[in-house]
Specification:
Blueprint (H helix, E strand, L loop, with lengths): L1 H35 L6 E3 L2 E3 L9 E5 L11 H11 L3 E7 L11 H20 L3 E7 L10 H14 L6 E4 L10 H18 L4 E4 L2 H4 L2 H6 L7 E8 L5 H12 L4 E7 L11 H13 L4 E6 L26 H13 L3
Parallel strand pairs: 3-4, 3-10, 4-5, 5-6, 6-7, 7-8, 8-9, 9-10
Antiparallel strand pairs: 1-2
Helix pairs in contact: 4-5
The structure holds ligand IDC.
Ligand IDC binds next to strand 8 and strand 10.
């Protein structure tokens, strides 16, 4: 009798384990499917980003550092891991225009290499079911008008080369600054957007706003005509707090589709204290309004915004112990949001 009960109990336990494992597996694969099911062309409806069925989509992911600077992270294993393990559904390819061998300051070979790298990034993102932002990363060149001619040529060629990739969003000027007016940005956007539209009539295009992509109120007061246009708001949680959050919410309430195409949880120098309390306030409010958010930055640079520790030379296969404080925070947030 004793033996019978022992056997019965162990069979029962084994059955429970099998059911548990199957349920766990199902949840994981359901979450993965949920993420992937969102791929396909996106469009903007009101203030929201939507998939082809009209369902609201929230993109959450990470931005590369400057592509010339840290090209090594644009690799197959790393992108696979960002999707499968981190739960990212978007990667931003930040291509500086001026700094560090930027697209406009470097030579012809550099320009060719950068275009190749952008294309590689788009293909890898596509392979691993992620959206991808092609970012014309102006910064030292305060006004997008400074390199407008080069921008037009770049977007003309890239949108032609990337024809047929439904996963591409174009960010046409990272952060206008140095007193650049909304009028100047609008003029620039009006000359660059048609160039992209010629090859990709429906792609979502993100436009930077004055004062390092913070004055979304100015864009809300005078938006650009045309469809599938979103407006960038960038924040660094230890610097930008209630005031900028209010600016974002007010702009959305006025009907502006806002996209947080870059943020950090440290201060605006990309360094300094990691402020998780303020970061979590940002996440809550962005989630509430379904705003997409992309974290700065995928590198091991010695700065708190970098997600990889400075002494880690790996370019994939990251362990938790390889991640910086902001890296661990991001990893946990992205996984949680993706249901992993
Ligand atoms: C910073 C990088 C840093 C680099 C610098 C170049 O983190 O390694 O030396 O650019 O000027 C932005 C910009 C982004 C900045 C980031 C942090 O879009 O390029 O990256 N930041 O300063 N806007 C607000 C903060």
């Amino acid at each position: 009798m004793k033996g019978f009960w022992k056997k019965a109990v162990s069979i029962f336990c084994a059955a429970i384990m099998v059911i548990g494992l199957a349920a766990g597996f199902q949840t994981a694969s359901a979450a993965a499917k949920f993420q992937d099911a969102k791929l396909g062309p996106l469009h903007v409806k009101g203030t929201k980003l939507c998939d082809k069925k009209g369902h609201t989509v929230q993109l959450r992911g990470i931005s590369t550092h400057g592509l010339s600077w840290y090209p090594q992270y644009v690799n197959d294993k790393c992108f696979k891991e960002l999707h499968d393990k981190w739960g990212a559904n978007v990667v931003r390819l930040a291509m500086y225009t001026e700094e560090y061998n930027g697209y406009c300051s470097g030579d012809d070979k550099n320009r060719k290499d950068l275009k190749k790298l952008v294309k590689k990034g788009v293909k890898l993102a596509d392979k691993y079911h992620m959206y991808v932002i092609v970012d014309w990363h102006i910064l030292n060149d305060c006004s997008p008008k400074q390199n407008q001619k080069e921008a037009k040529a770049f977007f003309k060629d890239m949108s032609k080369q990337l024809k047929g990739y439904d996963n591409v969003l174009y960010e046409i000027c990272n952060e206008p600054n140095g007193g650049t007016s909304w009028k100047d940005i609008k003029d620039y956007a009006k000359s660059v957007i048609p160039v992209i539209r010629k090859n990709d009539k429906d792609a979502v295009i993100i436009v930077g706003t004055p004062n390092w992509s913070q004055y979304v109120d100015q864009a809300a007061a005078d938006p650009i005509k045309g469809k599938n246009i979103m407006y960038a708001l960038h924040f660094y949680a230890d610097t930008h707090r209630d005031d900028l959050r209010k600016k974002m919410v007010d702009a959305i309430k006025e009907g502006l589709p806002v996209f947080v195409s870059e943020y950090g949880i440290c201060d605006c120098s990309g360094k300094g204290t990691v402020n998780k309390t303020e970061a979590d306030k940002w996440i809550r409010i962005m989630d509430k309004y379904n705003v997409s958010y992309v974290a700065w930055n995928l590198s091991n640079k010695d700065e708190t915004s970098a997600v990889i520790k400075k002494d880690c030379q790996k370019t994939s296969g990251f362990k938790r112990s390889d991640l910086s404080e902001s890296g661990k925070w991001l990893y946990d947030i992205l996984r949680k949001k993706a249901g992993k």
